[in-house]
């Protein structure tokens, strides 16, 4: 993690974004390059992780920044996972928005993702007697 640098609100080149999203097999995002670039550019906050000039991770937040934020994406290149980069990016976002009452994210229900988010202080919506709806 010590060789990784974090950039705030720096939007990577589209080819760098495509490489990152494809590497973690989030292909639904890479069907439309323009839509991906616009989605990243129009986010409330974007933090990127770099190993020299190589984009190795990204977290992005959408929302109003006052009452709610939604952690839309957090992804780390596969061969950089397990080094604390994702936890560091998440910690930076949670610290920046610590006064926000509602911090939400939705993710795959796998043991790996559940363990990651619980390890980083997140709890399931059901722990608050809440339910999530999607369409």
UniProtKB/TrEMBL annotation:
Give GO terms: molecular function aspect only: acyltransferase activity, transferring groups other than amino-acyl groups
Q: Which organism is it from?
A: Anaerosalibacter bizertensis
Q: Name one Pfam family in it.
A: Acetyltransf_1
Task: Please report the name of this protein according to its UniProt entry.
Answer: GNAT family N-acetyltransferase
**Gene3D superfamilies on file:** 3.40.630.30
Q: Where is the N-acetyltransferase domain?
A: 4-135
**In which domain of life is the source organism classified?**
Bacteria
PANTHER family, A to Z: FAMILY N-ACETYLTRANSFERASE, PUTATIVE (AFU_ORTHOLOGUE AFUA_6G03350)-RELATED (PTHR43233)
Q: Which PROSITE patterns match?
A: GNAT
> Which InterPro entries does this one have?
Acetyltransferase_Butenolide, Acyl_CoA_acyltransferase, GNAT_dom
